[in-house]
Structure formats: structure tokens, C-alpha cells
Design brief:
- The protein is mainly alpha-helical.
- It has 22 helices and no strands.
- The N and C termini lie far apart (77 Å).
């Protein structure tokens, strides 16, 4: 087996070897094995560092060159878009379908025979489409389709790289182009959390009939930030076909999805879902029960008050707090005595404070004055704290 010394002799040019390295051959052979090994490691490390620095320099120079190339091409593409779309003489007088787009001129002047050229043009069209509406946005969409840029976006959906798939989803969703449902549903159940979330958002924006069909197949957990992201998409997508979210309360086993649907039921004031929410009061998971109680309070579900009172004593403290909060929101007045008793009896500060807020929400001035006069000192301080309009918590 060849030694490190023999390998270096083959790699290094002969003149350089004879002048600088060969004189040390005898010295190297006279050294103990561990010294020769250490020297070999040092030489290898030096060459590795030099190689990495060279690679880093080449990468940075390549990146700068590509950046300048793309910027130059972007300016050329933007000038064409501005000239033939924004400054079109007929853009205000005729419909977008009647405006003739010079497809061939775009292809001739920009080339568009390389992938990076088409991608830069896609970025330009996307940028202006996001920032303009009406006729201008419609004409940009036509340009995107006529130059067959949509084919690139569709091709990205079949890429093995998840970030490319997200890129394609963003582009197709921005241009309101349909994606085969089979592909979309597959992406909404991807193992990659970011891709899955983006696919779900795109499905909501692009699906015309059942934008929430992927809820039927959702098995993964929905983290809080994912729920917030989907909530923003749902509430800011115009013309969205909103279903009754109670169907997933009845049939889904995904607890995170059930919690999310409860938030959507409250946001869209789906009072016809109250009966389904009431059924969740018997759910074995305390988190679900707490969310259902809060939802009933925000929906002013007066029919649920009796059941809330019956289940009160068997619930953990955070569910008891939610029940008292719900009674304060419903404000029917039927259980004002119950709130008074909990305020005076409970040793838990959270329960006591929520009971005080519920009493104040009922607006019973005589009861509030009586408590301020006759309640124990610690209860009185809690009530005064809740009565202060400057204190929110």
C-alpha cells in the first residue's frame, strides 16, 4: 500500500518535488510514525483550507456575477412590461381581452431560451401583479400565460426540492391558475411542515367548490403559528366559500383541527353550530372542553348555561374559569347568585377574579355596591381591581 509520501510524490510536479520536498525524504523516514502521521494531517488540513477558501471565493464571485446579470435582465424586462402594458394607449378604453400583447417581441428582445431568463421574467410579472389590480393585473396574467411561463410553475410542483414546490404554488396561486386536485391534496399532507402549510393555503385560495376539503385528510398536528397563518388566509381571501365548520367537530379525530374549527365558528358567527359545540362539553380532552366553553360564551349560547353549571364542579380549574367567563359573556342574569357565591367562596384567585368580572359584566350595581361594602377585604380588593378601567388583566 502506497504511503502518504508516495501519494504526494505523484501529485506534486517533479521540479517542485526535487527542489523543495525530496531533501526532506530521509528526514521524514527517520521520524517516528506518529510524527509522520501528524505532519500528514497538517499538510492535508492546509490543502483542505486552501481548497475551501478557493471554493468560497469562486462561489461569491459567481453569485455576484449572476446577481449583476439578473439585475440587468430584470431592468430590460421591466422596461418592456412598462412600455407594452402600463403605457399601452388603449389600456383605459378597451377591455383587457382586446389588448394585443407583443409576445414575439418579448421573446425576441429577452431571449427567454434559458431557465434563469424565464424565472427573472416570472419574478417581474409576479411583482407587478401583486401591486396592481383591475385591468393591469388581468393583462399581466394574460402575458404570463401567453409566454408559457405557467408551464415552469407547474413543473416546479413535480420538483424533488420542497422550496421549488412552494415557489410554484406561490406563482400559480398569485395568478389564480388551477392545480390538479390530486397534486394539491398530496401536497397538503406532505411530511414537510412548511410545504404542507403553503399547500393548504394555496388550496384554500385556488379551490372553487370545496376549499376546505383537505381538512378531511388532515392527520398532522396544527401548531399555533400554522393556525394563525391559515386563519389569515381564510379571512383575507375574497369570495371564499365558507362551509359550516361544525362538520369537522363531529367527524374529525384531530384535536388541533377541532380547536381551530372552534375559532373559525366564533369568527364567522356560525350560530347554527352551537348544538355541535355543546356536544364537545362531554369530550374527554380538557383542552377541547375549555375551547368549547369559550366558544359558547362568545356565541351567547344561552341554551348552554344549564349544562355549564351542572358540569362546573367536576372540571379542572382552567375549565371552571372558562365557564365563569362564558356566563359573564352570556349575561342572562339567571346565574348571578352562582357567580356571587363563587366570588365569595373560591380560594383560587383566577376563579375569584373571573367571577368578579362576570358580575361587573352583568351590570348589577346594587350587588356590586353590596360586595364592596360587606365582602372580605381580599375579595373587595379583587373587585376594585376589576372595576378599574385602566387595568385590563
Amino acid at each position: 500500500m502506497a504511503s502518504l509520501y508516495d501519494i504526494l510524490e505523484r501529485l506534486i510536479p517533479y521540479p517542485f518535488w526535487v527542489r523543495y520536498i525530496a531533501p526532506f525524504e530521509n528526514w521524514m523516514e527517520a521520524q517516528p510514525p506518529f510524527i509522520r502521521f501528524a505532519i500528514g494531517v497538517i499538510i492535508l488540513s492546509v490543502f483542505s483550507i486552501l481548497f475551501m477558501y478557493a471554493l468560497l471565493i469562486i462561489t461569491r464571485l459567481s453569485y455576484q456575477w449572476k446577481s449583476r446579470r439578473n439585475e440587468k435582465f430584470r431592468q430590460k424586462a421591466e422596461s418592456l412590461v412598462i412600455e407594452h402594458i402600463f403605457l399601452h394607449p388603449d389600456i383605459e378604453r378597451v377591455s383587457p381581452e382586446q389588448i394585443t400583447l407583443p409576445d414575439q417581441q418579448f421573446r425576441t428582445e429577452l431571449g427567454l431560451n434559458k431557465y434563469w431568463q424565464r424565472q427573472v421574467l416570472i419574478d417581474v410579472v409576479m411583482y407587478y401583479h401583486k401591486n396592481f389590480a383591475g385591468k393591469t393585473a388581468q393583462i399581466l396574467r394574460r402575458l404570463y400565460i401567453q409566454l408559457r411561463l405557467d408551464k415552469i410553475s407547474y413543473r416546479k410542483l413535480r420538483s424533488w426540492r420542497w422550496n421549488k414546490k412552494i415557489e410554484g404554488l406561490h406563482e400559480l396561486a398569485e395568478m389564480q391558475l388551477q392545480v390538479p386536485e390530486v397534486i394539491m391534496l398530496e401536497l397538503t399532507t406532505s411530511r414537510n411542515r412548511v410545504l404542507r402549510m403553503e399547500a393548504q393555503a394555496a388550496y384554500i385560495r385556488l379551490s372553487k367548490n370545496e376549499p376546505f376539503k383537505f381538512f378531511d385528510h388532515l392527520k398532522e398536528n396544527l401548531l399555533a403559528w400554522e393556525q394563525l397563518f391559515l386563519f389569515e388566509v381564510i379571512t383575507h381571501t375574497p369570495g371564499l366559500n365558507i362551509p359550516s365548520f361544525s362538520r369537522w367537530l363531529n367527524y374529525s379525530d384531530n384535536k388541533d383541527l377541532m380547536l381551530f374549527c372552534l375559532k373559525l365558528i366564533v369568527h364567522f358567527n356560525q350560530f347554527n353550530s352551537i348544538s355541535s359545540v355543546i356536544k364537545l362539553l362531554d369530550h374527554r380532552d380538557a383542552r377541547i372542553r375549555e375551547a368549547a366553553i369559550d366558544a359558547l360564551g362568545q356565541l351567547d349560547a344561552i341554551d348552554a348555561e344549564d349544562q355549564l353549571i351542572r358540569m362546573y364542579v367536576d372540571q379542572p380549574t382552567f375549565c371552571q374559569v372558562a365557564i365563569i367567563r362564558a356566563l359573564g359573556r352570556i349575561r342572562s342574569g339567571r346565574y348571578i347568585d352562582f357567580l356571587r357565591e363563587e366570588f365569595l367562596r373560591s380560594q383560587d384567585y383566577a376563579v375569584r377574579k373571573e367571577a368578579a368580572r362576570a358580575i361587573i359584566a352583568h351590570g348589577d350595581e346594587s350587588l356590586i355596591e353590596s360586595l364592596l361594602l360587606h365582602a372580605p377585604e381580599d375579595r373587595k380588593r379583587t373587585l376594585e381591581h376589576c372595576l378599574d378601567p385602566l387595568i385590563k388583566y
